[in-house]
Amino acid sequence: MAYTVVGKSVTRVDAVAKVTGKAKYTDDFSERDMLVGKILHSPYAHAIVKSIDVSKAKALPGVEAVLTYKDLPEIRYATAMPGVIEAIATDEVDVAELKYGTAGHPFSLDESHRDKEDRYILTQKARFVGDNIAAVVATDALIASKALKLIEVEYEVLEALTSTDAALKEGAPLIHDDCERNILASGGYAIGNLEEALKESDHVIEGEYETSIVQHCHMENQVSHAYVDSDRRIVIMTSTQIPHIVRRIVAQSLGISWGRVRVIKPYVGGGFGNKQDVCIEPLNVAMSLAVGGRPVKLELSREEAMIDTRTRHAFKFKIKTGINNDGKINGIHITAVSNTGAYASHGHSIASSGGGKFRYLYPTKALKYDPITVYTNLPVAGAMRGYGTPQIFFAFESHIEDIAKKLKMDPIEIRKKNLVEVGHVDLLSKNKIMSCSIRECIDKGRELIKWDAKKALYKEQTGDKRRGLGMACFSYASGTYPVALELAGARIVMNQDGSVQLQLGATEIGQGSDTVFAQMVAEVLGIPMYMVHVISTQDTDITPFDTGSYASRQTYVSGMAVEKAALEVKEKVLAFANRMTDIPAHLLDIKDQFVVFKDSGEQVIALEVVAMQSYYDRVNAQPITSDVSNNARINAIPYGVTFAEVEVDIKTGKIKILEIFNVHDSGKIVNPLLAEGQVHGGVSMAIGYALSEQLLFDEKTGKPLNNNLLDYKLPTIMDTPEIGAAFVEKEDPTGPFGVKSLGEPPIVSPAPAIRNAVFDATDVAFNRIPMNPQRVFEKFKETGLI
Amino acid sequence: MFKRIAFTVNGKAYNFEVDVRESLLDVLRSHLGFTGAKQGCGVGECGACSVLIDGVPYDTCIYLAVWADGKDIKTIEGVAEKNGELSDVQKAFVEEGAVQCGFCTPGLVLTTTALKESGKDYTREELKRELSGHLCRCTGYQSILKAAEKSLEGHVCTCVDSPHYKGK
């Protein structure tokens, strides 16, 4: 369809605010006499606090409060400001135990579908190096830091289980008493008869693959401040992707009613899933309550944020595939062990989601997925861009390459032989593939990288520097339906001049959602972008309910709500124009700020005139607004492919990416410039995942070894090659304006594509990432290449 | 211990006492309200807190406020014209889509401004090296590099092995 604003690379609505320093983030706001909170982290990965003495810390001048697990949940009564905390305490919800879950999922009325509640705000049992044992509130950061050193803790140190193997072994101590063998959860799915499918296959091929723990490294660390306002309500300003969920979880963690909590989210300096979790807000509120509701700021340092927020789950996979001589796959069996670290957070959802999204790429007669999610004494793993898919696609797209090599088949042909078709209905989710351009994406990528010419060129290499080509495909989803609720809210208010305010529950965290929503509104209402004023700040007191930014759901799911809200405003404008002109509304449209005849385009009345009348007409005045909620009970499946060309330095183990292209089928692209930006960022993050990034821990003690931006090898501009982004645009019939998701997909396929390119160049199969120079060098020595 | 210092920020003179332990970033953000300088790491790894001190980009999180005595400081708030018109560098960042979450943006705009004001010529590799003190997790640096090259138009190498080589 031809659009005026949708599909154009309009300037981001927040670009000027951000290049001038006017965009305000959480830490740019302050309250007078704001106190500073700091956390005492456990130095042991697995230990029990035998005794804790805070008297010296409390006596330090400038220290306002010291908290330990003993004060919680009693904090509600501890040092109440008369009349304030009592009011909160009387609201208290009756709960036996104040354990809570932190994952940023919508609440589920079905108890069996809720996240595991395994966390206290402060704990007596440390489960990873960095766990929260005590906290200090002081007049400044230096005093708070000094006070932390004065807290005397005696620990009984337990065996640190720093790998899933250690956690699963017979007789291993339990990290959480209610989880046998330290298994948080298990269970996947089975489609068809696997045994039969493998039996009737010409070949059954097996492989093992492994991914590592990485961290989001958004530039703005977790930061918040909290206080009790004059209305006796708890106010939290925080850097989050999920303000409405933060509100619920804070209330749950403190056992107070949800309406007592107000969450404000200003501009956010990146999230990538790490802020789809409630990491610091409950403790921040507890700190404020401990000092009578005074404002307290809690800001994590980079070193804290890298271990005491969330990480990406490391996975170990075993895959067995039955395949015929013609390349047709009959059956796949995937077993997976997911390392969730010390607490559940998103837990088994990550393994489930990866396995779920994988099903949309290569439907087979039989597919069995057996994942388990295991607790270890390492930092907590949670949501991170891709949510389980970078792991499973690294494994399978490496595996299918291994199969192609073994059976001497073309890696592209073997994939094409097994790709999904439009109309396919997934047996388990019942989601139907309504659009799929993966084949066109592959053809485009093949051409962009000059696959055929280079493949011929790179045959039989023997030198110290060898080049190779690799590719990998992926499927994803747009939101979580049918697994979780996909509710989104939008509100539009038309001003006297015909411009509008757009209020959203979906959060801008850098991905550009505010801009694409504004484009949708401008498109529907026939007004230019500058007449759409997006309220970028979310405030749970004011903002329509929306579960937040995650699961690549904004443009698709929240976009539906935005389109619906704009259509309602349009309908009201035309109805009002009808009252003013007697022309039937169904003959009218809005174009270029005018109400026009739909057919001829002839101008009837200026939008501004209608808007003015809607405010001030003595008889008919009724300002034009809409306030909608949309429950998206549908999903659209995006696809894509990475093509990569590498040069491997055999002697040093260094892998250089010469060219890399990501080609995406994300339906209609609302804003090409912003879309390319999503692809660039996702591919860059994936290059780190493939080649350099890994959080390292001492195997014995679980102590982090590189939780800073110097030793953790985040790609710099020097490490990042030119990244090619391309799209095959085919509108999906279910999405608003034909869109499918794009935020997370770019990170899914680059790592296996790079791995396959290295395999092509060297004949050495790396089944574990990252492929950093040390590991590559060691593997080359092992395989006799050097 | 406190020490009296005097410096200018975006052309305006300040003269006041600072705690000798405070970083320039603390002073700019907490005392003077220049919140455009961001703290991403606090130890000079990420570049988000960069400002120009006598025209040179510095990480202010590891630059003591007392060292700024007598210096001329430019923060992101002082880059645009007084009438609000964006500088060429800011325009380039907006037009090229070099902004996502925006947390690294002020530092990058300032460093690019310093490169532009140096009047020197840069190859693409030199430019990347100059910008490599700034970490960004959103953009993969693609549009940032484009914006920087656009900002430095006429000063980016177009020699034969450059990506900007125009040919004959």
From TrEMBL, chain B:
Q: An example of a Gene Ontology BP annotation on this entry?
A: purine nucleobase metabolic process
UniProt-listed Gene3D superfamilies: 3.10.20.30, [2Fe-2S]-binding domain
Instruction: Tell me which residues make up the 2Fe-2S ferredoxin-type domain.
Output: 3-79
A GO molecular function annotation here is: 2 iron, 2 sulfur cluster binding
Record's superkingdom? Bacteria
What keywords would UniProt list here? 2Fe-2S, Iron, Iron-sulfur, Metal-binding, Oxidoreductase
What pathway does the annotation place this protein in?
A: Alkaloid degradation; nicotine degradation
The record ties this protein, via InterPro entries, to: 2Fe-2S-bd (IPR002888), 2Fe-2S-bd_dom_sf (IPR036884), 2Fe-2S_ferredoxin-like_sf (IPR036010), 2Fe-2S_ferredoxin-type (IPR001041), 2Fe2S_fd_BS (IPR006058), Beta-grasp_dom_sf (IPR012675), Diverse_Oxidoreductases (IPR051452), XdhC_XDHase (IPR050033)
NCBIfam families attached to this UniProt entry: XdhC_XDHase (NF043084)
User: What protein is this chain from?
Assistant: Carbon-monoxide dehydrogenase small subunit
